[in-house]
């Protein structure tokens, strides 16, 4: 009943990585807040900040595994991920790897590593603030990489 009365309900975790990939910092922050606080049929209890960090790390781990010139197709991406992922998420991760490039993926990992340390007490920041900064920086990183996405798409469209 709460979602119909104004309070937002739970949300699917993949919506966070989708918003980050699109470079939508505001949308990513909204999803993050719902993951950390809301309950619903898809999410029986709020996620712990370390769960969110783990989910983001897993996402970028997949992206990093696909940062290889030999991974050209969705089938190559599925194979590179050990065949344990469906074609749609494999294709999205491959496209993200192409957009970010090696340097962008390294930057994303540096952001994840700093957030991990911060969540574990390296800085006296609330866990929610640490994740807000992380999600915003990852979305900005994706937004900066977006112009390359069009160029990559045009190049592959000609082949």
Describe the structure.
The protein is mainly α and about 160 residues long. The chain contains seven helices and no strands. Helix 5 packs across helix 6 and helix 6 runs antiparallel to helix 7 (about 125-159). The longest helix has about 35 residues, at about 85-120. The protein is globular. The chain starts with a helix and ends with a helix. Residues about 1-5 and about 150-159 have low confidence and may be disordered.
What is the H/E string?
A: HHHHHHH
What is the overall pLDDT average? 86
Number of H/I helices: 7
Q: How would you name the oligomeric state of the polypeptide chains in this document?
A: single chain
Main sheet, how many strands, which sense, barrel?
none
Strand content: under 5%
Number of strand segments: 0
Structural class: mainly alpha
Q: In whole angstroms, how far apart are the ends?
A: 51 Å
Shape: globular
Helicity, as a percent range: over 70%
Low-confidence stretches: 1-6, 149-159
Cα radius of gyration in angstroms: 17 Å
Annotation keywords:
159 residues, disordered N terminus, mainly alpha, globular, single chain, disordered C terminus
Secondary structure: elements and pairs:
Blueprint lengths: L1 H4 L8 H8 L3 H13 L11 H17 L8 H7 L6 H33 L7 H32 L1
Helix pairs in contact: 2-3, 3-7, 4-6, 5-6, 6-7
Quick summary:
The chain has 159 residues and is mostly helical.
């Amino acid at each position: 009943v709460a979602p119909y009365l104004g309070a937002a309900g739970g949300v699917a975790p993949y919506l966070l990585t989708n918003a980050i990939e699109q470079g939508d910092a505001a949308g990513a922050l909204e999803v993050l807040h719902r993951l950390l606080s809301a309950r619903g049929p898809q999410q029986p209890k709020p996620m712990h900040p370390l769960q969110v960090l783990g989910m983001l790390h897993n996402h970028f781990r997949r992206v990093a595994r696909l940062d290889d010139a030999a991974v050209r197709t969705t089938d190559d991406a599925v194979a590179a991920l050990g065949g344990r992922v469906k074609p749609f998420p494999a294709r999205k991760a491959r496209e993200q790897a192409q957009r970010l490039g090696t340097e962008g993926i390294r930057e994303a990992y540096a952001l994840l590593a700093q957030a991990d340390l911060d969540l574990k007490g390296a800085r006296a920041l609330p866990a929610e603030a640490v994740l807000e900064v992380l999600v915003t920086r990852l979305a900005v990183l994706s937004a900066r990489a977006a112009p390359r996405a069009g160029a990559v798409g045009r190049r592959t469209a000609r082949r």
